[in-house]
Amino acid sequence: MPIAAVIAPVTPLQQNCTIVWCTKTMKAAVIDPGGEVDRLLKAIADKGLTLEKIWITHGHMDHAGGAAELKVRTGVPIEGPHEDDQFWIDRIQQSGEQYGMPEARIFVTDRWLEDGDTVTLGETEFEVLHCPGHTPGHVVFFHRESKFAQVGDVLFQGSIGRTDFPLGNHQDLIDAITQKLWPLGDDVRFVPGHGPMSTFGAERRSNPFVGDRVVAAMQAQGSAYQAPKNHSPG
Predict the structure, then answer these.
(1) Which residue in 26, 104, 122, 196 is deepest, having the highest Cβ count within 10 Å?
(2) Blockwise average pLDDT, block size 10, the chain, 234 residues
(3) Considering the domain boundaries, does residue 30 fall inside one?
(4) Range of the domain at 180
(5) What is the pTM (predicted TM-score) of this model?
(6) Total tally of structural domains belonging to the chain
(7) CATH number of the domain encompassing residue 156
């Protein structure tokens, strides 16, 4: 496989920070370094990797609170999220204090990402999909050849991202999942922001928020459709 990855849950919220690397060059990216930077750097060193990039799916504190420190300590650039998440980036330190993570810091990205962009890692290339709803500037990273996606808090095993936060939009999230993620293929494996991995096909069959039968019911019932209560961790 051209890429490999390891999930390193960080912060008390157990956010799935992911270390992904090009297996040919051993150059790595850390996706969503929410915190525990020392542990992440040790994991990178233990695997003999060279950190090349920091990628951010969205601006929530548990996903991006360690990005500034990681950049200062390594000198590597930060890519992402979409610029519509500046609202949340500006609130990282405040959120960290609220949730008992005072080390969380605001960061400055080196590159805002847009839908259709690509990001490189060693000799590999990932596609960027702008998937708003959980936050307005949320992006997903997709490696087509490996059928691998890091989706942040867009989609979980058996659930979807919360949209009751400021600037959240439930319909935008449903549209992003069904119109941008599902067409990538049922066999795509994805790392969510919290909890276990799954595949798009498994979620289409059984997810109570965006499964195919649920989406059909939404379309048939329109405004009368009552979605189940969302207890997702992110």
Answers:
(1) 104
(2) 96 95 98 97 98 98 97 98 98 92 95 98 98 98 98 98 96 98 98 98 97 90 81 81
(3) yes
(4) 3-199
(5) 0.97
(6) 1
(7) 3.60.15.10
